[in-house]
Amino acid sequence: MAFDGKRALQILEKIGHANSKNEYYLTDAVAIARELGLRRLVIETDEDEVRGINTKAQLAAARTGYATTLRRAAPTPASPLLHRNGLSCRGHTLGKDVTIEPFVVFGPGVSVADAQ
C-alpha cells in the first residue's frame, strides 16, 4: 500500500481499532480515503516489484530475484551470468554469447556487443 505523502498522516490518524480484536488494520485506509474523497488506485504487480527489505537476508533474496528477472529478459538465454547476486543492470542490451563475470555493475543504457 502506498500513500501520497501529503495525505498519509491524515488517513493513518483516522484508522481506529473498534473491531473484535481491538486491532488497527491498514486496509481500513482504503475506506477512509474514499470517505475523504481521495483518488484510489489498484495496481497489480509481482511481489518482487514491491518487496520490502529490512534485513541482509531479505536484501540477498531480492538481489537473487532481480538477477533471475535479468536472466529471463536476456536476449540470449544461454549467455551465462556467473554470479547470481553480483549483477546490476538497467536499460541494458546484451549481445550473443556474452559472459557477465561476478560483481559486474552496468549503468543505464549500456550495450555489450556479441562475443568474438
Summarize the helices and strands and which ones pair or pack.
Elements: H1 8-12, H2 28-35, H3 47-50, H4 56-73, E1 88-90, E2 93-94, E3 105-108, E4 111-112
Parallel strand pairs: 1-3, 2-4
Describe the structure.
- This protein is α/β, with parallel strands linked by helices and 116 residues long.
- It is elongated, with a radius of gyration of 21 Å.
- The longest helix has 18 residues.
- The chain has a domain of 66 residues.
Feature tags:
two-stranded parallel ribbon; 4 strands
Question: Percent of residues in beta strands?
Answer: 5-15%
Low-confidence stretches: 82-86
Distance between the ends = 47 Å
What structural class should be given to the helix and strand makeup? alpha/beta
Radius of gyration: 21 Å
Main sheet makeup: 2 strands, parallel
Q: Strand arrangement, largest sheet?
A: 1-3
Query: Which percent bin holds the helix content?
Result: 25-40%
Q: What is the element string, with H for helices and E for strands?
A: HHHHEEEE
Mean pLDDT: 80
Total DSSP E strands: 4
Shape verdict:
elongated
How many helical stretches? 4
What's the quick description here?
This protein is an alpha/beta fold and about 120 residues long. Helix content is about 30%, strand content about 10%. It has a domain at about 45-110.
